[in-house]
Structures are given as structure tokens and as C-alpha cells.
Amino acid sequence: MSSQATGKTSSTSQHYKETFSLSRFARVYGAQLGILGVFFGLWIIFIVSAPDTFLSSRIYFAFMSTIPFFAIMAIPLTMVVIAGEMDLSFPSIMGMGMVAFAFVYEGTTSIDNIPTRVFLAFVAALLCGSLIGWLNGVIIVRFGIPSLVATIGTQFFWRGAVLVLIEGRNFSLSYVKESFLYPALVGKIGGYFPMQMIWLILIAVLGWVLLNRHKFGAHIYLIGDNVQSAQLMGVNTARTRIRAFMLVGLLAAFAGVIASFHVAYFWPSLGEGYLLRTLASVFLGGTSVFGGAGTILGTFLGAFIIGAIEAATVAVGLTGFWTQLIYGLIIVLSVIMHTYLRKRTE
Amino acid sequence: MDYRLELRNVSKLFGEVQALENINFQLGRNEIVGLLGDNGAGKSTLIKILTGYHQPTSGEILFNGQKIDHLTVPKARQLGVETVFQERALAELQTLWRNIFLGRELQNKWGLLDIGKMRDETYRLMNESMGFTSSAVSPDSRVKTFSGGEKQGVAIVRALYFDAEIIILDEPTMGLSLKETAKLINFVRGIKKAGKSAVFIDHNVVHVYNAADRIVVIDRGRIAGQFLTKDISLDMLMEKMIRVAETGNLD
After folding, report:
1. Is the Cβ of B113 closer than 8 Å to some Cβ of chain A?
2. What is the pLDDT of residue B125?
3. Residue A182 forms contact with B (CB below 8 Å)
4. CB neighbours of residue A238 within 10 Å
């Protein structure tokens, strides 16, 4: 398509040079600066109120070990929300991915090599997640059902499928420790640095490239901003949205695998409890529920704020009862801040 | 005769509603056709068929004498059709450069967006064609902050950038100031000088009369009649338009 544009591009001689201005910088990066401010503000509060905990490295390794489980899903979910859609089914996809994993592992006993079987099971989990994501997309796009409603339905359906297929059992996955995937996914570099953090960083960077430097991401923003304009100008809005839902499915299955590997155990309730934390990370990060605006950096920081609050509440000396109250307070205040910044910077 | 674009017996149904009925429409080479009609006459539906957004229920579409099956927006673009939509088709929360390249972003050899080039091109177009003089506007400005005329300018410049053979303008003067409208009429005449063709839709009979070679009047989904502007006076045209609106007949 871009060949059409050659007619007039050849005469480019003027280069657009951005002259640095603080107000323009603040306008363009307002949302990210806002969430960065919240992030460092809270961090300082944590350090001041519980210096013993927050000045030692142990708590940070703990964060990096548990936060990736939901932060990995928050990255593609950010794209879905920017496209003006919603997905509530990802916790069940985590479970379904592990069901596919268990079925393939148990169905390949003829292969006398556990690492190979675990690898095949891992691939099956990712395929299963992508397929469910694709189905979500097709239901939403082809039948024109609002994604919020459609994924409430599929959320129940796939959780039900997990329970039916696995008959509500929970079981040990201790065999995965024999696979090279175990250290690659949830191992600890030098005995400290959790591998899942590396995966989160990798996924966040790839997600950023996809969203900001690829056609797919450009179309995600355009669809969320004005779906009719995008359609009039020839953007394939159906395919783009279906792909976004597939990404959520794929990475939910991946998150399900690493969360299960981490404890080497399968629970049929896998994923429950991640729904609101993942959504909160996206909205705390400044992604607009109306679509058309949002950033990967915001979601990344949002996930760490959400993940840190629980530990911080206890470390600061409050009882665990306070956690939810503080969650709520920070989420509401941050969303107010984002709305205010958006109005100011327009 | 050799037409750039031709519709043969095109009809369009939306459920029970007959939006267009047996339309035969031609656009010649280097011709500006004005499309007139009241609200709901079917002008916008006709445009959306020409641009591939809607598919006709029955009938044929021909480009340069060749029949085109299942015309889509990207296909129409490949055939050289560019449109300035009534809705302007902008994404207002996004930056100017993203809007200019909406739907056909430039890519570099790695398949990633060539943002540098898109910004440069936008900057050039801003200065050369859009007449943005304010230093507050940059390729990174959000379109939401622009005035109505500036937004229309973005939509028009975007249509021109991609070397169109046929330019379709759907109600382009809507919401424009007098000065901006005069500029727009000049721009439509410029299309003629550049040897290209255009379909120009407007409510305002005077605007269309001043820019078009031929005028096609649409009423209730049918073509009620057509005139060459050199053969009819503005007063006569006005009179006929009012008669069509009242009786459905030109005479």
C-alpha cells in the first residue's frame, strides 16, 4: 500500500525538528508523568514509613516473583481497552490453558521423555489460550455483542469447562521440574532474580513496540478513538480487534503456565483473584475506559503499585484488613488524576 | 464513451429501505460532477458505494471501463479514489501525523512504522498545503484542538497526498467559515486544472454550481435529472431544485 505514497514523498527536503519545550513535553507525556509521580510518591511513602522493609532488596525480589503473573496479562489487556473493548475472561483462560497442558501431558505417555512432553503441553496451553481469545474476538466482532457482556459469558463458560474437564481435581505438577522450561520460566538467576520478571520485561518491551511502532498498534488507537473513521479509511477493524483478543488469550495461558509452574501445582481455581488486580493495573496506569488513549509504561507501573500495596500495608504496621481500603483509595485518586490530566493536556 | 467511473443500475437496500434505485451515474475524465439532493436523497449512500464502504445490493461498478467485483475501501484506493468524508473520518484524540496516514501508515524495511518520515511529510504538508501558521500546531498536535476549518483541511490534504485520480468530497463546506469555503471552491477548481476528476456533494446549490462541469440531481434514491452547468443559469437550477423537493419532478 505504501507504494501509492511515492508520488509526493520524493520531494521531502524539510525535516521536522522538534524544538524542546517543557509545556509540550508535559502535554505529550502527561499521562506517563502522572503515573510516574504516583509511583515514586508511593515508593517514598513506603520507604519512609517502613525503611527496614523497603530499603532491603528482599521485598523487591518478592515483588518481581509474584507481580509478573498478572502484569503479563495486563499488557495485552491494555491494548484491548485502548481499542475500546473489554475482556473479563482471561482468568478462566489461565485455567483452560493449564487444562490443555495437563491433557496433553497425560495423553503423551507414549513419549518416554518428560521434558518433551512438558514442552508439547506448554505449546498446547498457548494454542488453547489463543484459540479461546480468537473465539472471544469472533463472538464480539462478528455478532456485534458488546465485549463486556460477551466476556462475562465466556468467563463463566471456560471456568465451567475447567471444572467439568478436570472434574474439580487439583494435582501436583512436580514433574515439570525435570523440564528445561522450569528454570527458563520460573527459575531464579543467581538464586535471586526471578525469570518471570525477565519474561514480563520482554513482553512489555514487545508490547510497547507493537503498540507504538507497528501498524497493529496504530490501528488499535484509531479503532478506540473513532471506529467509524477507522473503517471509512480502510482499517480492518474486525481483524485488528480479533487479534487483540487473541493476544490476551495467548498471554493469559502463558501467565497460567508460569503461575502453576511457580508452585508446581494445579488448582482448578487458577486465575481467580487476578481479575480485578489486572484490570486495576490497566486503569491505574492511565488507560482510558473510553478507548483511544493508554500506555504500556502506565500499565507496567500500575501493576507494580497494585502488587506493592499489599506488602506495604503490612510492613507499614497496619493489619491486612487495610489492604483493600488502600487499594480503593489509590485507584480512585489515580483515575481522578488521569481524567484531570487528560482534560488539561488537550 | 470512456468514463473514469461508472455505475450501472445500482440499487441499495438497507433492510426494507430502498436507499438507491437503479442509479446510472458516470464520471468522465477530468470532469467535476456536482451531486445535489435534499437530506436523505441518497447522496451519502452513493458516495459510500463509490468508495467501497457499502456494497450495492444489485448493479455494476466500472472503473475505466472495467467491471469491479466486490469493491472495498482498500481496493477503491488502489484504483485512485480518495474521499473527504462528511464525517471527516478523523481520530481526534490522535496526533496530526497519525491522522494524515490513517489506514496506510508508512513502514520501514523491518515492517515497523516509519514515524520520522510520517512526521516530516506531515510537517511539509502543514506548511505547504494546510496553511497552518500558528507555532502551536505541530505534527504531534492532537486533532481535537483544531478548528472546524483546520480539521477539514486535514481531511482534504490527506486525500490529496496519496495521488488520487478521483476525489470525492462529501459536504466539504459544512461548518466552514466564508473564507474557508472560498478556499475550498478554489481547491475543487484546482482538481480540474490538475487533470483529475471529482464528485462534489453539497447542500448549497451555489457552491456546486460554481465548481462543477455537470450537475446530477438525486431525489428519493433516484436520479431526477442532470445538466451541464454551461447550459443552465443558477436561477433556473435553483427553481428546479425547489420543484424537485416539492413534487419529485424537475419540470
Report:
1. yes
2. 83
3. no
4. 15
* Chain B residues near residue A14 by CB distance under 8 angstroms: 120, 123-124, 127
Which candidate from A8, A15, A226 shows the least CB-CB separation from B161? Answer: A8
Report yes or no on B87 lying in a domain: no
- What's the CA gap between A135 and A156, in Å, rounded? 14
- Residues A12, B162: C-beta atoms closer than 8 Å: no
B3 touches chain A (CB under 8 A): no
| Four-residue CA torsion sign, A57, A61, A67, A73 | positive
β-strand partners of A171: A266
Contact A2 B115 (CB under 8 A): no
CA B170 remoteness from chain centre: 4
Q: Are A120 and A102 in contact (CB under 8 A)?
A: no
Least confident of A56-65, A138-147, B37-46, B134-143: B134-143
CB B134 within 8 A of CB B98: no
Is B231 contained in some domain?
yes
**Interchain proximity B102–A235, CB inside 8 Å:** yes
Sequence letter at residue B63: F
Chain A CB within 8 Å of residue B53 CB: yes
Q: Is residue B86 part of a domain?
A: no
A10 touches chain B (CB under 8 A): no
- Say whether pLDDT at A9 is over 60: no
Mutation pick from B90, B105, B140 vs chain A, by most beta carbons of A within 10 Å, is B105
**Where does A31-173 show beta strands of DSSP type E?**
171-172
d(CA B152, CA B175) in angstroms, rounded, equals 9
Q: Taking a C-beta distance cutoff of 8 angstroms, is the pair B35, B216 a contact?
A: yes
What whole-number distance in Å separates Cα of residue B2 and Cα of residue B26?
10
- B151 contact partners, CB below 8 Å, separation of at least 6: B88, B90, B143
Domain enclosing residue B33, as ranges:
1-80+164-251
Residues B114 and B170 in one domain: no
- B133 and B174 in a single domain? The answer is no
Q: Looking at this predicted complex, what is its ipTM?
A: 0.82
Q: Which of A333, A297, A332 is nearest to A36 (CA)?
A: A297
- Regarding whether B132 and B144 lie in a shared domain, the answer is yes
Residue B65 shares a structural domain with residue B179: yes
Determine the Cα–Cα distance for residues A158 and A140; give it in Å rounded to an integer: 16
Q: What is the DSSP letter of B127?
A: I
Contact across the interface for A292 and B93, Cβ inside 8 Å: yes
| Spatial separation of the C-alpha atoms in residues A11 and A102, rounded to whole Å | 60
Q: DSSP letter at A146?
A: -
Q: How far is CA A104 from the centre of its chain?
A: 26
Cross-chain Cβ contact A225/B91 below 8 Å = yes
Extract the runs of DSSP E, i.e. beta strands, from chain B: 3-14, 17-28, 32-36, 58-63, 66-67, 81-84, 166-170, 197-201, 214-219, 222-228
Say whether both B100 and B53 belong to one domain: no
- Dihedral, A295, A297, A299, A300 alpha carbons, nearest 10: 160
Residue type at A110? S
Residue A73 and residue A251 in contact, taking contact as beta carbons nearer than 8 Å = yes
**Domain-terminating residue out of B120, B147, B163:** B163
pLDDT in tens, A254-305: 999 999 999 999 999 999 989 999 999 999 999 988 899 999 999 999 999 9
Are B40 and B218 in contact, with CB atoms under 8 Å apart? no
With contact defined as beta carbons under 8 Å apart, do B22 and B58 qualify? Answer: no
